[in-house]
Design brief:
The structure is a single chain. The protein is built from twelve helices and two strands. By secondary structure, it is mainly alpha-helical. The chain is 51% helix and 3% strand.
Length: 242
């Protein structure tokens, strides 16, 4: 059974190493390539690894970096021509934005190196967004966003504050009230959305009350799908929700 295709997060990490001025030669014995292989094997992404010995081993990482040679306009040779469509998309996206590439790569690695947080991210189920593998910051940061949204301590505190101030828990986008519609069944129920843009996510940062918005299930799912907006107000205005 073949190993799974490279995920966006993995390509981001490999490309970050490729552009590293102190990378050294593209060779499976390069310590930096060996280290990246270890990091890739710890990413909280794949449930199964059909071949533990071959999965993202140094030879595989070496081949991926050789694929980038074929895409690099500054390289005079040929490189490995077997690059994927996603390889090219990520390469083109970050070729002239290496600072952002480095920032995202560092954030992914910070999650990987935090065992407790890595396990929490791994437990987050896939959804239609993560399955498309198209979030610019990658699956790990996207799922870290969802981990933050499920911190019961801060969520319960947010609900208490809003309930005390307004006497109810209404969706901040459309105004839907679960208790008003479902009675006791909906009492105290509402979802939390983390307002921090994915590009600003940091594994070290503690979630604050002001980072959260209370949303109904529909609006919460839709605001996750529309990654072009960064606030509840922008989302409401864009979709003319009153």
């Amino acid at each position: 059974m073949r190993n799974p295709k490279w995920h966006r997060d993995e390509i981001i990490l490999a490309l970050d190493l490729y552009f590293d001025e102190e990378r050294g030669t593209i060779n499976a014995s390069n310590p930096k390539i060996i280290n990246l292989s270890k990091i890739l094997n710890k990413l909280p992404i794949f449930d199964t690894k059909p071949d533990e010995n071959l999965f993202r081993n140094p030879n595989g990482v070496n081949l991926k970096l050789s694929n980038f040679l074929a895409l690099d306009p500054n390289y005079s040779g040929k490189g490995m021509q077997s690059y994927s469509k996603l390889d090219k998309e990520v390469f083109d996206e970050f070729f002239n934005n290496r600072k952002r590439l480095r920032e995202i790569a560092r954030k992914i690695i910070n999650v990987v190196e935090n065992v407790e947080l890595r396990n929490k991210v791994y437990q987050i189920e896939d959804d239609e967004i993560s399955e498309l593998d198209s979030v610019s910051e990658g699956l790990v940061i996207y799922k870290l966003h969802k981990v933050r949204e499920r911190d019961n301590r801060i969520i319960n505190e947010k609900k208490k504050i809003v309930s005390k101030e307004k006497g109810c828990l209404k969706c901040e986008i459309c105004g839907f009230d679960f208790e008003e519609t479902y009675g006791n069944l909906g009492k105290g129920f509402i979802e939390c959305h983390h307002l921090k843009p994915l590009s600003d996510y940091d594994s070290e940062r503690v979630t604050e009350i002001t980072d959260l918005a209370l949303l109904c299930s529909n609006c919460h799912k839709m605001i996750h799908r529309d990654l072009t907006v960064s606030s509840v107000e922008d989302f409401r205005e864009k979709w003319t929700i009153t």
